[in-house]
Amino acid sequence: MYIHADLDAFYASVEQLDHPEYAGKPVIVGGLPGDRRSVVSTASYEARKFGVHSAMPLVQALKRCPQGIYLRGRMERYREMSERIMGIFGDFSPEVRQLSVDEAFLDISGTEKLFGPPEALAKKLKAAVREKTGLTVSVGIASNRYIAKIASGMSKPDGLFLIPPGGEEAFMRSLPVGKIWGAGEKTQEIFRKHGLKTGEDLYRLSPGTLSAMFGKSFGNFLYRAVRGEGAESFDSERGEGSMSAERTFPYDLYDRFAIESALLDICESLIWRLLGEGRQARTVQVKIRYKDFSSVLARESSPNPVVSLNDLYARALALFRKKYQDGRGLRLLGAGLMNLEEGPRQKELFGAQDEKERNLEKAILEINRKFPSAALRRSRSKLPEQDP
Ligand code: TTP
Ligand code: MG
After folding, report:
1. Strands 137-142 and 160-162
2. Ligand number nearest to the C-alpha of 100
3. Which ligand places an atom closest to the C-alpha of 41?
4. CB 41 near ligand 1, within 6 Å
5. pLDDT number for residue 348
C-alpha cells in the first residue's frame, strides 16, 4: 500500500505557527498589498472561504479578502520545515518519494509489524507531524500512488482517506473529472465540450473513442485511470531503463547563473539522447553533490511526458531550486530521465506549441548529427525563467 501525504496550506500554516496571532485568520502568502504584480502562493483555509487560492493575482485576492493578513513569505523557513517533515515521513517508510516541497509518496508495504495496518500508520504519521512541527497533514492511502494522491486531496484539510484494495475502480468511476490528476486545463476543456462530468462517463467510452479525443497516450492513460489502475510512471519501479548525464566541476561552483547554465547543458544532452532513441519519459531526476560530498537527489513524476528541452529544463530547474541550498559550493550536478517508454509516434499527443518546439529540437539534433563540430544549441534566453 501507498500513502500520499500533503501538508495543509503549507506556507500559510507555517506563518500561523510562527505568529500565533495569525491563527484562525485569513493568511495569504505571496506578497504585500502594495505588490501589484504578485500572485498568491497559498492561502490559509480561513482565506479560502473568501475564494482566495494559489496562483490568483494578489490584486484579485485583495478584492475578495481585504481583511486578510498579507505576507511575502520566507522560503528559507519553509524549506527548513520541509526537510523536517520529510525526515518524519522517513521514520514511517523506507521509501519516501518527495513530489514537492510539502508532499511525498510513502511505500508502506512491509511496515505492518512496526506500525499496524495502513490506517493506524497514517494516524501515527499525522500525530507525529503535529507533535514535532505543529502542522497538519492530509493523507491518502491506496494500493497505488496515483489513487493515494487523489485521495489525500479529497481529505483536506487534516484528513485521512483510505481507498480499500478492490475499491479502486468504484472510487475512480465516482470521481468528478475535475479531480482526475493529470487532466489539466486543456483536458478539462475537452471534458466540458463532450459533456463528460465523472469518471463513470469516461468509463463508458471505448479506448478508440478516448484516443480520438485525447490522443493515444493520454487516452490510454484515462482508460486505465478510471479502471483504478495506477499510472505506470508513478507505480512501476521497473520502467524500461533510464538515462542520465552529470558534470563534475573542476572547482566548486557558487554562481547561480553558471550552475543553472550547466544544468541546461546537461538537459540538452539528455533530451537529444531521448529524442534520438525515440523514447519518452515522465520522471525527471536531479542530483546535487556539494563540496563536502553530501548529495541530494530530487525526483518528480508527471502524468505528462517530457516533450521538449524547454519542458525538461523547466522541470529540472524547479527540482534543482527546490533542493539546492543557496551559497553551498557545488561539486557535481546531474539530471536523469527514469522509467523510459516507447516514444510517441502520434502528433496529437502534443499541443501545437509543443509540436513546433519538438520539431525545432529535432532539426537541431539532425544538424548536430551531421556536423558534430557545429555544436548548435538553443540560447538560454529562449528558455523559461522561473521565479526562485
Ligand atoms: P500545495 O500543497 O499545492 O498547497 P498548500 O499546501 O498550500 O495547500 P493544500 O495542500 O492544503 O491544498 O503547495 C504547497 C506549497 O507550495 C504552498 O503552500 C505554496 C507553494 N505553492 C506556490 O508557491 N504556488 C502555487 O501555485 C502552489 C499550488 C503552491
Ligand atoms: Mg499542501
Report:
1. parallel
2. 1
3. 1
4. yes
5. 33
Stated pTM of the model: 0.67
Given 43, 71, 99, the domain boundary residue is 71
Query: Are residue 246 and residue 350 in the same domain, yes or no?
Result: yes
* Ligand 1 lined by 15 (C-beta under 6 Å): no
Ligand 1, atom 7: closest residue by C-alpha: 9
* φ and ψ at residue 223, rounded to 5 degrees: -55, -45
Residues 180 and 112 in one domain: no
Closest residue by Cα to atom 23, ligand 1, is 41
Question: In 45-64, which positions are buried (b, 16+ CB within 10 angstroms) versus exposed (e)?
Answer: bbbbebebeeebebeebbeb
- Answer yes or no: is the C-beta of 8 below 6 A from any ligand 1 atom: yes
State phi, psi for 127 to the nearest 5 degrees. -65, -40
Q: Are residues 151 and 175 in the same domain?
A: no
DSSP 267: H
Question: pLDDT tens digits for 329-363?
Answer: 998 999 999 888 776 543 333 444 566 666 776 67
The runs of H, that is alpha helices, within 236-351 are 256-276, 309-323
Task: Tell me how far apart the 2 most distant CA atoms of the chain are, in Å.
Answer: 65
**Nearby residues of 218 by Cβ (< 8 Å), 6 or more positions away:** 187, 303, 304, 349
Number of domains present in the structure of the chain: 4
DSSP string, 337-353: EES-EEPP--GGGS-HH
Which amino acid is present at 25? K
Residue that the C-alpha cell 522517513 belongs to: 90
Residues 44 and 154 in one domain: no
- Can you tell me which atom of ligand 1 is nearest the CA of 29? 19
Output the CA angle 225-229-230, nearest 5 degrees. 90
Contact yes or no for 51/43 (Cβ under 8 A): no
Contact in structure between 354 and 327 (CB atoms under 8 Å): no
CA distance 275 to 101: 30
Kindly state the DSSP code that residue 319 receives in the 8-state scheme.
H
Question: For residue range 140-174, what is the model confidence (pLDDT) as tens digits?
Answer: 999 999 999 999 999 999 999 999 999 999 999 99
Q: Cβ(352) to ligand 1 under 6 A? A: no
Q: Provide the 3-class DSSP secondary structure of residue 288.
A: strand
Ligand 1: atom nearest CA of 40 is 24
Q: What is the Cα 333 distance to its own chain's centre?
A: 20
Handedness of CA 103, 107, 113, 114 (dihedral sign): negative
Positions annotated as catalytic residues are: 103
